[in-house]
Amino acid sequence: MKLDVLNTQGEKTGRTVELSEDVFGQTPNEHAVYLAVKQYLAHQRQGTHKAKERGEIAGSTRKLHRQKGTGGSRKGSINNPLFRGGGRVFGPRPRNYDLRLNKKVKQIAKASALSAKASAGSIVVLEDFSFDAPKTKEFKSILSNLNLDGQKTLVVTADMERELLLSSRNLQRADVARAADLNVYQIMNTQTLVLSEGAVTKIQELFA
Length: 208
What we know:
Layout: E1 2-6, E2 12-18, H1 21-24, H2 30-43, H3 103-119, E3 123-126, H4 136-145, E4 153-157, H5 162-168, E5 174-178, H6 184-188, E6 192-196, H7 197-207
Parallel strand pairs: 1-3, 3-6, 4-5, 4-6
Antiparallel strand pairs: 1-2
């Protein structure tokens, strides 16, 4: 698949980029994509949730009334979950949500996600550019020139561009990522993927 390379004004430069079939031309494996997204979201969870159960509540352990003969239920102590301030029944406990995936499954998932975007025509190739200083207005104008106003957009660069990253952080529907750090969730959670020329080369080296 060939795509035209655009400049920051949204115009064709006359150059084209060949997208590798190994990365951008695969038949998407939906289950692999699902597992990769599930792993990413699971790793965002801290797992530090905790609620006190009956044995952990600070309160009297005195039996409230005799076991039988009152006509009421057996309540035990004031720490019983039946009472306000009592322990919680089967409350959450700290746990690890990490999910392990084979390296090959991750590679298949990334190629599947990129291939899905390519087949949907949701990839734009932009010539390499950089900012001397963080300028949100200039970054926004580039997206406007590419007719991406209001779209959830991910700009992928070959290396970390600090000024570019700072220029995008105040925009709610735009983000910047380094090619080596690109993950399946980021790819699937965007409407348009804007790849720099250097990023295309880097992605094809890493994900092939």
